[in-house]
């Protein structure tokens, strides 16, 4: 019964919007065959712009793609006409020079108009030349935790990463954007790997 109700609601929504397969238009937002993109986030700004963030990394075979990639960085694309055309790519986060890659990139616009992006990262430690890998990846990786970046010009420029920490807890990660309350308090759903005695009620 619950599934039927959901399907009916979707049908009614499509009917009210006139959105059916025959009327849908597929638009390529961005394509570069030397790269691959995952974890897109789409947000409509107060000025009507659509902005999309994603994780970008070098194109690889399916077997070589993974949760961690040494070349992964965060990018942003913008549309000013409701998604029909998209402007040039802006690199939001790239610390691959210090062997730190980017994961996720949820985005929110705060009441003051600024954009707040949160991400988590892994530090990459390449193995020495000749180190046996048995055909696997030639590096180890260490979880670095959650970071935030802020833009005061609608996503054109960004502050450096700022680490998000909670006293008494290990390094955390989040896969959703922040939520601003009416009193301007910011909420963020996080997760981590607790140790005995750690209390997540403070997070």
Give the tags.
203 residues, mainly beta, five-stranded antiparallel sheet, four-stranded antiparallel sheet, 11 strands
Structural description of this entry:
The protein is mainly beta and 203 residues long. The chain is 8% helix and 34% strand. The protein contains 1 helix and 11 strands; from the N terminus they run αβββββββββββ. The strands form 3 sheets. Strands 5, 6, 7, 8 and 9 form a 5-stranded antiparallel β-sheet that branches. The longest helix has 16 residues. The chain is globular and about 55 Å long. The N terminus is likely disordered.
Task: Describe, in short, the structure shown.
By secondary structure, the chain is mostly beta strands. It is built from one helix and eleven strands; from the N terminus they run αβββββββββββ.
The major sheet is characterized as: 5 strands, antiparallel
Pattern of helices and strands: HEEEEEEEEEEE
Anisotropy-based shape: globular
Give the number of helices: 1
The amount of helix comes to under 10%
Radius of gyration: 20 Å
User: Mean pLDDT, nearest integer?
Assistant: 86
| Percent of sequence in beta strands | 25-35%
Q: Structural class of the helices, strands and pairings?
A: mainly beta
């Amino acid at each position: 019964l619950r599934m039927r109700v959901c399907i009916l609601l979707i049908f009614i929504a499509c009917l009210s919007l006139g959105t059916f397969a025959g009327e849908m238009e597929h638009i390529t937002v961005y394509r570069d065959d030397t790269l691959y993109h995952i974890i897109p986030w789409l947000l409509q700004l107060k000025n009507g712009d659509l902005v999309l963030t994603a994780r970008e990394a070098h194109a690889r075979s399916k077997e070589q793609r993974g949760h961690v990639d040494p070349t992964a960085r965060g990018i942003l694309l913008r549309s000013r006409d409701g998604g029909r055309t998209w402007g040039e790519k802006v690199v939001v986060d790239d610390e691959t020079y210090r062997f730190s890659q980017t994961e996720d990139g949820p985005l929110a616009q705060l009441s003051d108009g600024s954009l707040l992006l949160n991400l988590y990262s892994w530090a990459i430690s390449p193995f020495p030349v000749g180190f046996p890998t048995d055909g696997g990846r030639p590096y180890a990786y260490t979880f670095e935790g959650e970071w935030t970046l802020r833009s005061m010009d609608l996503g054109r420029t960004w502050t450096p990463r700022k680490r998000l920490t909670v006293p008494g807890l290990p390094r955390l990660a989040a896969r959703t954007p922040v939520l601003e309350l009416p009193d301007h308090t910011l909420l963020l759903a996080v997760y981590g790997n607790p140790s005995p005695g750690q209390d997540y009620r403070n997070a």
